[in-house]
Design goal:
The protein has a single domain (33-172), classed as 3-Layer(aba) Sandwich (Rossmann fold), CATH 3.40.50.150. The protein has a five-stranded parallel β-sheet, sandwiched between helices. The protein is α/β, with parallel strands linked by helices. The radius of gyration is 16 Å and the shape is globular. The protein has helices spanning 6-14, 18-25, 42-49, 61-67, 82-91, 109-117, 136-143, 165-172, and strands spanning 32-36, 53-58, 73-76, 94-100, 120-129. It contains eight helices and five strands. β4, α6 (109-117) and β5 (120-129) form a beta-alpha-beta unit.
Length: 173
């Protein structure tokens, strides 16, 4: 695992996933975007190429530094902490929000998403992705009596919250 986490290495090795492509396609071209949990900026790079202006927010200092070239600005720090929230308030409003597999890493994703919504212009869009713990691969592992913690994926060691499709819908609503 790199200092910026395993996901940047996976994207570098295999390219963007279908879930990443869905997130990107949900953002209008030319939008002013908040990429919450921007990692090393791999989504921001694609959004910028589509004419978007991207502000990233990232807790991991090494990832935040790597994201700098792909973002108009990167706010370092925990999305649940007041210093990062104050910095994001100063940069608002945004036309679109991208939360690509970040909310499951937070202590209180409901509060974080409610806060992030306050940064959006009226009529703005939000593209949110969280892993589905009820996916068949997870169910199979559980049926076999395993909860296989891993460096990435459904059973990522850093996941603090787990969502089903219904739970993710409730979170978004």
């Amino acid at each position: 695992m790199t200092a910026a986490g395993p996901y940047a290495a996976l994207v570098a090795a295999h390219g963007l996933s279908p879930a990443h492509r869905l997130l990107l396609d949900a953002v209008p071209p030319g939008a002013r975007v908040l990429d919450a949990g921007c990692a090393t900026g791999y989504l921001a790079r694609e959004l910028t190429a589509r004419g978007c202006v991207v502000v990233g927010a990232e807790a991991d200092p090494a990832a935040a530094a790597a994201a700098q070239p792909h973002c108009a600005e990167v706010v370092p720090g925990d999305l649940e902490g007041e210093p990062a929230r104050a910095a994001l308030r100063a940069l608002a409003p945004f036309d679109a929000l991208v939360c690509g597999d970040v909310l499951e890493h937070l202590r209180d994703p409901w509060d974080a998403l409610a806060f992030l919504a306050t940064l959006l212009r009226p009529g703005a869009s939000a593209a949110i992705s969280v892993p589905n713990v009820a996916h068949w691969t997870g169910r199979r592992a559980l049926l076999r009596g395993r909860f296989p913690y891993a460096e990435h994926g459904l059973f990522d060691r850093t996941h603090l919250r787990f969502f089903t499709r219904a739970g993710a819908r409730e979170l978004a609503e």
